[in-house]
Amino acid sequence: MGQGLRTCTCPAPASAGAEGGSHRIASKASGPELDVKAAGFVVAGSGSGDNWAPPSAALARSCSSTLALRLDGGAGTSWLASRGCAVRLVWSSATDPSDLKTPPVVLPDVLPLPARVVQVAAGESHALLLVLDPAPRVYSIGANDHGQLGIGDTRPRRDSVRAWEVKALDTLSLIGSVACGGNVSLAVSQRGDVWSWGRAEPSGALGLGDLPVACVPTPTSVGQLRRKVHAVQAATTGWTSFVLTHLGGVMSWGGGLCGVHGHGHQEDEPTAKAIRELSGVAVVQIALGPLHALALSSSGEVFAWGRVTGAFGPEVQLQLTPKHVDALHGIRIVQVAAGCEHNLALSATGEVYGWGAHSSGAFGCMPVLRDPSQMYAMVHLVDLQLGRVKEVGCGTCHSLFWATSIADSDQAQGNQREASTLWICGQGVPATEHPARQLTAKGGLAGKLARGLLPKVGVPLKLTRVDVKRVLEMFAAP
Question: 322-333 as b/e, with b when 16 or more CB fall inside 10 Å?
Fold first, then answer.
């Protein structure tokens, strides 16, 4: 599994004394090594993991039901489930070759589906839609180069306006949630079973063992989890995958670049393992960027690991195991979201906190920085002025906010009726390969991993309101 994959093998400082403590990106097989210590990484400890214990039944009682999210974003699309409909927002290119200084345009669309949409999940360039009819069914739309739509083939369907039913997941499967990342798709049943399909990455993100094929175009049961854990949520970067159990535990497998799987090292993990540093924590949500992860506990605490930007300092840090985000201490967080290099956390009072890359405009406003050249913002309260935010979502370089506010007309008449509104900001970008795949190119990613993953793009879209009600009316059948 993962033979020949180069991984960032930065050991903990305590074990970095040999030969001057140089940290390198090395290949499991023979190949060139790239020094990343000189590129500016701050390397966090790996943790011993000796204090691990399996989650107790008490955690199940304290662990609330997982979040049924209505917002999500990919590279160049944003998604919203509203009033039983799937609303897709397609971003125009963020490149500005003529230097016109014009922001991108977002074009809305409503997908014709025969049932009520209850959840959306976006990958790099495809999406899954969970509907109730009245039994749950799964639809997919977008790119299908690697069979990620789950319809049994790899025929191109990137520009299709049609959503395809994933018939292998029939109504008897009782799907409870879906997840996408990169070119991989996951589904979790209400019985706790997990299915995966899409690109068969060498890291083993599908969880199906060492496969002799390039892709799996049909949902396939992840046998290593069956009858061993009761999963309630799944998440994937397309290179590394996670499941959240009904006891609040987190298990992960697949690629270990930058320690994103949370097991204290950076080798690939072919089989699912519990993340020991989260033992004793009742986790209710997992959110992923390409090379970092966030976990939210039932008590409202946030943990981060992997290639972390802004959570623990202004520099890029390699955090090999989950670490509590102390800057959010005392604030009860109810939802987290992760983009490529930016992150959002929603508090119980409807306030939004953000950290990470700000150049794409994903925070809606310029955060206060100690140094104007600082690439990554520290944890801060995002000044949105949108009223009470009820849900947040992240695309690669953009953000979505579902907020409620009292309409001006109602306020003038003394009414207190709240209206829900979608707001978006940032940039849409072209779909790209996962950073781990780019390591096979000459020169690797050593400098880029330390300097930043975001592509050079043009002017970001400022915080903009999307009139979802009007969009639904426009696309309603006459």
Answer: bbbbebbeebeb
Cβ proximity of 315 and 293 under 8 Å: no
H or E element in which residue 440 lies? none
Of 341, 353, 296, 293, residue with least CA distance to 314: 341
What is the end-to-end Cα distance of the chain in Å, rounded?
A: 54
Q: Over range 108-112, report the average pLDDT.
A: 91
Q: Are 76 and 89 in contact (CB under 8 A)?
A: no
3 state DSSP class of 450: helix
For the residues of 58-75, what is the DSSP string, one character each?
HHHHHSPPPP---EEE-S
What does each C-alpha distance from 247 to 54, 66, 177, 422 come to in angstroms? 9, 11, 17, 33
Question: For 414-457, how does the pLDDT look when each residue is reduced to its tens digit (9 = 90+)?
Answer: 555 566 799 999 999 888 899 888 775 545 555 666 667 766 66
* Total Cβ atoms within 10 A of residue 413: 9
- What is the side-by-side strand order in the sheet with 164-165? 116-122, 126-132, 136-142, 164-165
- CA distances (Å), origin 149, targets 173, 310, 393: 17, 34, 22
Cβ within 8 Å of residue 408, ≥6 positions away: none
* E strand map for 246-315: 250-254, 269-274, 283-288, 292-297, 302-309
List, in order, residues 6 or more apart from 138 with CB less than 8 Å away.
128, 129, 130, 131, 150, 165, 166, 169, 175, 178, 187
The whole model's pTM is what?
A: 0.84
Nearest one of 316, 311, 321, 446 to 23, comparing CA atoms: 446
Q: Per mean pLDDT, which range of 207-221, 292-306, 355-369 is the poorest? A: 355-369
| CA 47 remoteness from chain centre | 24
Total Cβ atoms within 10 A of residue 294: 26
